[in-house]
Each structure stands twice: as structure tokens, then as C-alpha cells.
């Protein structure tokens, strides 16, 4: 049998907020690359994860969930997701069966099929109770749009399911003479950016309500050569003066907790001990401020 050609390309993960895109990326590359929380609108900038074998290289691009907005940070999220569609070679429509209605899944399928790029659907969260019927409906919807539907539980599935998904996903990528990135890498993100995201994820874990949506994390200084261990100084920027004491907590208990769990995860990423110092800064309504959004890299690359 003739050997199938080597394939490589960018595969965008597109779906509604909370559909399980980042979880799917982490499951497929077997590394924690993109942060995951139970709350919608977790992912902000696109995040890249790599899977390379003798058959090909998939460059996954995790995108923010699709939202509609006309101002500030949410406009960036919307543009970013659309730009991921534009700059991908092929697309995965990530459709969750946890939704009460399939309405938004149809919207996602419309958008993805309209891109005229090769695409495939991955139905997520099939481990949730009593979803068989919704899986069936979602499959029907995918077929209506002329696509193929795969299913996944990012929580319960194992290596055999992962391999099966990867085998199908690679088929929709273009042929390529060689990989696009070093086959040893699992992401193109740098440690500094990953550390910012980890701290942001821990803020979601520790803080309630709307506060995590109105904060951003910026590494002020990352001294990799410091002795006896690398030193990281990060700012948690909030948009309201009243959020600052909540993040700090009584006797600095809240910020200490965020710092501790962030440090542990950054240490496991870097494979060594690190020193992490967190500081809270206030920039009134930063999420509406064009200049600040730019400084935080919340701008679409191609603009
Ligand atoms: N039970 C179950 N939960 C899942 C599955 N996939 C993701 N989740 C959960 O769904 C929530 C959202 O997952 P994310 O991966 O952050 O979703 P996302 O699509 O990246 O969300 P945004 O970045 O906000 O657009 C988290 O609590 C995940 O643990 C799954 O297959 N089964
Ligand atoms: Mg995400």
C-alpha cells in the first residue's frame, strides 16, 4: 500500500464560549497548553499547540469562544476568533452537547462551513448524563451542513480515542514537504506568556463572579538567570479600585493563595523552583482602553 503523504497545517478550534476547545487542545497534545475554567470566555488570545508524528504535524490554534460585541475586550475576542478562521488551513467546529439548545451550534456550523475551508466537527462533553439524544441531534446538524462528526470526552477518554481523533483531524490538512515547526515542540508559546495565562487561570479558580473577567495579568519582570532560582514579578491589573481589596483579601490571604497555586504550576511547567511575586494594579476600565488592550497584546495580529 502506498504511504500517505505527509501533511501539515494550522487547524483552528472554533466554537461557542465554554464548548471545551481549550480542553480538547490539551487532551490532543497531552500537555496543559491552554487554560481551562468552568466559566465562558476564558481564552482571550489564540494559543498554539503542536502534535507531530511521521504522518504529519497538526498546529492547533485554540481560539476564544465566539461572542458578539461592539466594544472593548469583547470586540477583540470576536475579531480574534474570526481571524483564527481566516488564518487556518482547516477548521474544527467544537460543539458541546451541554448546551440547552442547539441554536448556537447551528450558528457555529454556518460560520465554519461558510469559510470554504476543509472542516470537521468534534462533539464534546459526551460523558455528561443523558446527552445521547443531543449527540444524535448534533450529528444530524453536522450532516445537514455536509460535514463529518467525531465525538469526545475531554475528561474521560484515553489514548486510543485520542489517536483515533488525531488520525481523522490530520486528514483535512494540506500536504506538506516537512513540518512547519520543530517536531520536538508541543507549543510555540513562550514560558512568559504561559505563566501569565496560568496566573489568570488561578484568578478564575480563586475569585468569584465577574472579577476574573475584568482582570489581566502582565509579567513585569522575568529574570530567568536569578539565583538561586528564576524570579517572576507579575501584575494583576483590575479595572476598578473596589476590586483591589477583594483580590488581596484579609491579611493578603487571597493573593497569597493565587500566588501559591500559580507558582506550583509554573514550577511544574519550568521543571524547577521559581520565585513568584504578585502585585495588584488598578487601571480604571482598562478593558475599554485601546492603548492598554494593545499593551496586553489583545490586538489581532493581522490588523
Ligand atoms: N464533562 C466534561 N466537561 C468538559 C469537557 N470538555 C470541557 N469540559 C469542561 O467545560 C468547561 C469549559 O472548558 P474549556 O476548555 O475552558 O472551554 P473553551 O471552549 O475553551 O471555553 P472559552 O475559552 O471560554 O471559549 C471546563 O469546566 C471544562 O472542564 C468534556 O468533554 N466533558
Ligand atoms: Mg478556551
Describe this structure in words.
The chain has helices at residues 21-29, 72-87, 103-114, 132-144, 159-170, 191-206, 243-248, 253-270, 290-295; strands at residues 7-15, 47-52, 56-62, 90-96, 119-124, 149-151, 215-223, 231-238, 275-282. The radius of gyration is 20 Å and the shape is globular. It folds into two domains: 7-170, 3-Layer(aba) Sandwich (Rossmann fold), CATH 3.40.50; 191-295, GMP Synthetase, Chain A, domain 3, CATH 3.30.300. The protein has a six-stranded mixed β-sheet, with helices on both faces. A three-stranded mixed β-sheet has the order 7-8-9. The mean pLDDT is 95. A hairpin with a 7-residue loop joins strand 7 and strand 8 (231-238). It has nine helices and nine strands. By secondary structure, it is of the alpha/beta class. The N and C termini lie far apart (46 Å). Residues 15, 17-23, 36-38, 40-43, 64-65, 124-125, 127-128, 153-155 line the site of guanosine-5'-triphosphate. The site of magnesium ion (MG) has 6 residues, from helix 1.
Quick tags:
alpha/beta; Rossmann fold; 2 domains; 6-stranded mixed β-sheet; 3-stranded mixed β-sheet; 9 strands; 36% helix; 21% strand; binds guanosine-5'-triphosphate; binds magnesium ion
